[in-house]
Design brief:
- By secondary structure, this protein is an alpha+beta fold.
- Strand 8 and strand 9 form a beta hairpin.
- It is built from five helices and 14 strands.
- Strands 5, 10, 11, 12, 13 and 14 form a six-stranded antiparallel beta sheet that branches.
- The radius of gyration is 19 Å and the shape is globular.
- Helix content is about 15%, strand content about 35%.
- The chain starts with a strand and ends with a helix.
- It has two domains: about 80 residues, Alpha-Beta Plaits (2-Layer Sandwich), CATH 3.30.70; about 140 residues, Crispr-associated protein, domain 2 (Alpha-Beta Plaits, 2-Layer Sandwich), CATH 3.30.70.1210.
Amino acid sequence: MSWLVRMQIDAETAYSLGIRTSYDWHRRLWECFPNVPDARRDFLTRVDYLEGAFRVWVVGRRQPSRPAWCPVSAFSVKEITTAFFQHRFYVFDLRANPVRAIVQRGPKGDPLLGLTGKRRRGKRVPLVRTDDLRTWLRNKAEARCRDQAGRNVPGGFRVVEEWPLEITRPVDFHFGKEGRDAYHSGVQFRGTLEVTDRDHFVETYHAGIGGAKGFGFGLFLLAPITPDRDHQ
C-alpha cells in the first residue's frame, strides 16, 4: 500500500513560510509525516513551479497528513492500489538528477583512497548531452541501483524508444545549506515505458530514480495507457 499527495500552494503562502529553495521544501515536506522524528526518509517529492504557485507531489508507503500551512482545499491524497501497477505500458513524467562520477586521482594518476582504505567517492558531474541523458535513463531502467551485496538491481522497465522521448535541457536548482551555496542539475524526461518485471518496477517507483531524491528528484508521475488506442 502506498499514497500519492497533490498540493497546490500559492507563492505568497510559500514565501511567508520561508520557502525559497529545494532545501526549504525538503525540510517542510517532512511535516506530511508528523510524530516520526527518527524515521528514515522513505518518501519522494516533486515541486513544479507554476505562475504564482507551486504544485507539490509526495509519494510514500506511509499515509501522509495535511500540513497546517496547506489549505484543506489545496490538499488531496489517494491510495495507490496494487491494481494501478497491473498495466504493461505507462506514459511517464520524470524530473531526475542525472550525473556521472569521476574518479578522484592523485598526482601519479592513482585513485585517491579514504581513511578506511577504500577508493574515495567520485566527484559527481551533471550530464548535459542528450545522448548521454538517454543512455543514463536506459541504464537506470536496466539496473536501478546496487544492493548491499553490490549486485545491480533491475529497474523493472524499459523506455519505449519507438515512441517519442522528450528530454529537456538541464536546469540548475540552487539552494543554501550550512552556510554554503550548492545546486542540483535537473532534467525532465517525458515518454512511454513498458514494465518488464512488475515487482522490480514497483520497488523502483517507490525508491525513485537517480540521486538527490530528498531534494525533489526521482519521482515518477505515471498514467497507464493502451498503446493500440493511445498511440495511433
